[in-house]
TrEMBL record:
Origin superkingdom: Bacteria
InterPro entries: Beta-sand_Porphyrn, BPA_C, GH, Glyco_hydro_b
SUPFAM superfamilies listed in its UniProt record: (Trans)glycosidases (SSF51445)
Domain Beta-porphyranase A C-terminal, residue spans: 501-593
Pfam families tied to this protein: BPA_C (PF18040), Porphyrn_cat_1 (PF18206)
Record-linked Gene3D superfamilies: 2.60.120.1200, Glycosidases, Golgi alpha-mannosidase II
Species annotation: Dyadobacter jejuensis
The protein's name in its UniProt record: Glycosyl hydrolase family 39
Ranges for domain Porphyranase beta-sandwich: 386-489
CDD domains: agarase_cat
């Protein structure tokens, strides 16, 4: 997130200014500590059954992969005929036998978070009564777990169900409605009979919500939230650069994913008076024409997109509780029936030199790059929304992370406020893709932080700082970030007509704030409205995070506008006016305040 008010106003055009302040701890929605298990996971089942002890130790000890996972491991694995489902007595008996056979030796001793999910056709049918279908799934989780066989933490009843709706019936909308009703009824039963299991939905595969004047939003996520959202413990979504099952090629990284998430948060706040937490149960990249056959040249694109997306997720610790990079284990299922080509997104593949061995793929670079990052957030800002930034402080360690979302190199002026931090040494990691699709991933040692640097096209950097002492000797104050949501959303744009929003019940004073303005407009339409906050005109930026969205049907993204803290009141009015043409929508308006607290 860009907080321009904390930056010097004078800087060269075309050069980004990044300021990191290790003396100011950062809190977002009351959370400061980086939960590594929320971001750096495998799309792999727990307990692990594919890896040797040595391989698992490499993944969890060396690469420090989190103990979060996702697998197709629910009731669908029983393979029952949905038209002839077993009764409760039969399932209770069969479940007891399964528990007795369970080997608990591979269950991690540390806390872990597993999302169990299903292929829609294994659990859902429009031809079977919903009571019977939901009883079947409820009885599975009630009777097939217990003793040394622990429940998964989360259950996502169907994987990407709505893009499969036409496989069940030609009436797409009717199927989506029935699928939503299935989620709602099942969640009620699971909460009553299996209270330890959190229910998640609906794993939105194609969040192209602005398409058809937000018709996709209305017919998918909004419909699901209206029917089943109240009964969900978490909402879930998949975010991919590229194309996911439907639609044109488009990057979610940057402003587009921010607008998607702000839209969901805003409607959640409007509907329930609070923001329902979310899981990003898959994220990464896929492409038009991509198959699932392994191609090494695609791995750099996958790692790059994951770097991009996770930078945004880290800015929502109060909302995004778990995210799963779509990097799988060995995916041995792909190698059955004589097929020798590995799965595209696997972290380990059959060795190319040892017929009986396995080797890790270059997708490990995502985890290796981030493996040491830990601690509490500290303040860091960028003058350019295309330069995403994060910073953290821990005992004897500091971390500054930069990610270039732009498709060209960027010069950066770097300023760091270290306070009483006595630096012992610095390790700089640099990762980027060459024009020939090869990857440069290098590590070098520094004695001090640079004051200027060049960020390669779509490159990533981490400065790992070693210092003497503890954060308490460095941190002098805390900056608290909180979000406040407007009272309306998805309002139409008419030429020379103000679009009005109110942001009420803003509880705290603020030194500075950011107005997050999300828009959908046709190509060629202005993205620079006149914006007034409590009557004061705000400066509207020329740029936004990520690519220009030229290949999309519409622009849909978030702009960040600086708001002086002195303008903020308990009740606030935002006025937005476009003078170029009718058309488009203001999808959401969110005020993020930043307030300094002394320890």
């Amino acid at each position: 997130m860009v907080t321009l008010g904390l930056l010097n106003s004078a800087f060269c055009f075309g050069q980004a200014v990044v300021k990191a302040d290790f003396t100011t701890q950062k809190s977002i929605g009351g959370i400061s500590s980086l939960d590594r298990n929320a971001y750096f996971n495998l799309h792999q089942g727990i307990p692990n059954s594919e890896f040797t002890d040595a391989e698992w130790n490499y993944l969890t000890k060396e690469l420090k992969i989190g103990l979060g996972g996702r697998s197709f491991s629910g009731v669908g694995g029983l393979g029952a005929d949905l038209k002839q489902l077993p009764d409760e007595k039969t399932m209770k008996k069969a479940g007891a036998l399964q528990i007795a056979k369970f080997n608990s030796s591979q269950i991690p001793t540390q806390p872990y978070q597993l999302i169990a999910t299903e292929h829609p056709k294994l659990v859902f049918s429009t031809k079977v009564d919903l009571e019977k279908l939901t009883d079947y799934t409820t009885h599975y989780f009630k009777y097939y777990y217990g003793g040394e066989k622990p429940l998964p933490q989360y259950y996502e009843p169907m994987n990407e169900p709505f893009v499969h709706a036409r496989e069940f019936d030609k009436d797409n909308d009717a199927v989506i409605e029935r699928m939503s009703e299935y989620h709602a009824l099942l969640a009620k039963k699971l909460h009553q009979q299996v209270p330890g299991l959190k229910v998640v939905g609906y794993s939105s595969a194609w969040p192209e919500y602005d398409l058809n004047d937000f018709g996709i939003w209305e017919s998918r996520m909004k419909k699901f939230m209206d029917i089943a959202g109240q009964d969900m413990d978490y909402l879930s979504i998949h975010l991919y650069d590229g194309m996911n099952l439907e639609g044109d090629i488009a990057k979610r990284s940057g402003s587009n994913s921010e607008a998607i998430l702000d839209l969901i948060e805003t409607y959640s706040q409007l509907k329930w008076g609070k923001v329902k937490p979310m899981l990003i149960s898959e994220f990464g990249i896929t492409g038009k024409g991509w198959s699932d056959r392994y191609m090494e040249t695609r791995n750099p694109l996958t790692v790059n997109s994951m770097h991009n997306l996770v930078m945004g997720f880290i800015d929502r610790p109060d909302v995004i509780k778990l995210s799963i990079p779509f990097i799988t284990g060995k995916s041995k299922w792909r190698l059955s029936g004589g097929n020798k080509t590995p799965y595209q997104w696997c972290i380990s593949r059959p060795s190319q030199t040892d017929a009986s061995g396995w080797e890790f793929t270059s997708l490990t670079q995502f985890y290796d790059f981030w493996k040491n990052v830990q601690g509490d957030r500290v303040e860091v800002q960028s003058s350019d929304p295309d330069i995403a930034v994060q910073a953290f402080i821990a005992d004897g360690q500091g971390f500054l992370v930069l990610k270039n979302l732009e498709e060209e190199a960027t010069e950066i002026e770097l300023s760091t406020q270290l306070g009483k931090m006595k630096i012992k040494g610095i390790v700089q990691k640099t990762w980027y893709i060459n024009p020939d699709s090869s990857v440069v991933y290098r590590t070098e040692k520094l004695k001090k932080l640079p004051t200027s640097l060049t960020m390669p096209k779509e490159g990533a950097m981490i400065f790992e700082i070693q210092y003497s002492g503890k954060p308490s000797a460095v941190v002098a104050k805390t900056m608290e970030h909180r979000k406040f949501y407007a009272d309306q959303y998805i309002l139409p744009i008419a030429k020379s007509t103000p679009v009005l929003f109110n942001i009420n019940q803003v509880a705290d004073r603020a030194e500075v704030a950011t107005l997050r303005l999300s828009l959908s407009r046709k190509p060629g339409a202005s993205l620079k409205p006149t914006v007034k906050f409590n009557g004061a005109r705000l400066q509207v930026p020329e740029d936004w995070a990520g690519y220009d969205q030229a290949g999309r049907h519409d622009y849909f993204g978030t702009l960040y506008l600086e708001v002086d803290g002195s303008l903020i009141k308990k009740q606030n009015e935002v006025e937005i006016q476009f003078d170029d043409a009718d058309g488009g929508r203001v999808s959401s308006v969110v005020l993020e305040t930043s307030t300094i607290r002394k320890p």
